[in-house]
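My current task is to audit a protein record that another person submitted. What it holds is a sequence and that sequence's fold in token form. Thanks in advance; the entry in question is below.
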Amino acid sequence: MKMPEEISQEEVRERRKLLVLGLLFVVAFPASTATLTMSWWGGDNRHQGTIAAIELWNRTHPNAKVEYSSGGDGMRRQAKETLAGFLFVSPWLVGFVLLTAGPMIASLIFSFANYNFTSKFEWVGVKNYVRMLTSDYDFWNSVGVTFRWVFIREPIFLILGLCAALLVNRKVKGVGIYRTLFNVPSLMAGTVSTAVMWKMLLAKNGQVNALLALVGFEPVAWFQDPRTAMGALIVTSFISFGGPMVIFLAGLKNIPEVYYEAATIDGANAWQKFFRITIPMLSPVLFFQAIMGAIWAFQSFTVAFVISAGGGGPAGRTMFYLLNLYRNAFKYYRAGYASALAWGLFVIILVFTLFMFRSSNLWVFYETEVRVKKSAKAL
């Protein structure tokens, strides 16, 4: 399109004002440019105003020229980019639908049915949930065992991880080696081979009892005695403290040194610095660790399965929730009831997580929130 040779200064100013907005839509929303510019400039030709504005811009700004592409080209380009994006994420989408969303929906349907993989699907409504809550001793026993495992193990586990992080946060020669040595056991924790190792070491005729016999102790069947089975499981799980240690260490590195320097000037001792600076500044990391660790602990299975040979013994003292679920699904073939148990665990974890989030306002410290509140008070 040919621009007029003479354009008044007033018209130039008006077109520049419209062009500032027009260029934003040309760049960000090419598909809607034609409709937008037509409402500005009018005329039968939908792209006439846009072409005129860009040619005017290029004439008055030779060092910042703009190339014009029609709305149709923009729409086609946008469609190609959208298709390419879906192609890139399609492996994850397919995996999510087939391996996560699909099984979850199927298990929810099975939880309202009597189904054992081979029999005819029989809809029973909420009978599986009523049975689970009213007449299943194994369910309540597994809930109690799992809660003891979570609420006894997790606090000690987090304390060990924090202590290890404080030790390796020092500026000493070779500290990287100690960090590696502390973290390596966590890479093998929770595996079948580790569970077998502990079962052999803590057997009645194992190496641990052999060492204790040297100082006059009687041999103990650690995993076969109802009094010691849970304690032995908790103690053997502590070798994986390297995982939380790494996350706590990252949190410690983000605490500004100026806080400790100011506390030193004010005469604070090491304990005061720890409880008044380290713990509050580390509370978001502690919050994250507590939630993720508890979710993992609620789903513990491997060690109890290997050590008790899938029976949850002795006397049901290692009958974790997932172990009870596994026995119902693959030993007794109660797929419907096992699905109800799975959704029961989902509700337990959900309630626990919501409780942690609701209580976080009482003990989790966010520096940015405090700064915002102080700024608001100052205003």
Residues 71-110 form the longest helix (40 residues). The two ends are 56 Å apart (CA to CA). The chain has a mean pLDDT of 82. Residues 9-68 form one domain.
